[in-house]
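Today's session is about reading a structure prediction critically. Students often jump straight to the picture, but the first step is always the sequence itself: look for stretches that repeat, for charged clusters, for runs of hydrophobic residues. Only then move on to the predicted structure, which in these notes is written as discrete structure tokens rather than atom positions. Here is the chain we will use throughout the hour.
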Amino acid sequence: MQLSVTAGFTIEWSDGTSLTYNPEYFQKEESQKILVDLAGHHPEEVMQSVGAMMLDEESGIQFFVGHYRGLFSALPLPVVSKWLLNAGVAGARKLARHLPPPYVDSAGKPIVPKLTELVLEEFEDDDRTFAEFCAGTYSSGLLVGNFASQFESEGEIAKRFLSHPLRRVRQWAAERVESTKRHAAQWRQFQEERDLD
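Below is the predicted structure for this chain, in token form.
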């Protein structure tokens, strides 16, 4: 099987069938689901095709704004690593926003996923890669209920990474602690002002 993903997000198979990617949310999500399924069977082909699109000057811009974490999580680490080390900093900048964020597992252990660790270590000196990683960790969730408490909870998790061996993980944690503190205070103030009315 030969897979080709073009700048217009048309996925073509060697047998002549194709899927056209559409920027409309629903169709975009459906296209991504198909890519995730293909990644399970043909990871090298998917990574090479998507990787070429990421590095393309025109189509690559969407990797600075969209969310493709599910796709990159579906690809085996060695496949993504090989592509990334060949693509260099240009690839790291496009991939960084889609990396899985650090988390605390069910046993309470702080975990930095391997792909995230690889990018933040290998491209440690590139500020843009780090900025894209941070942007991706901030834009991946829905807040419901008491926003201030949720921000405080996120800050407590981030504190667990303040002594991580990787400089960029420590930097992310410190920035996250400060921003969650600030956001929690803003939401508390907003709530207090609303309650006065």
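Discussion point for the tutorial: The longest strand covers residues 10-13.
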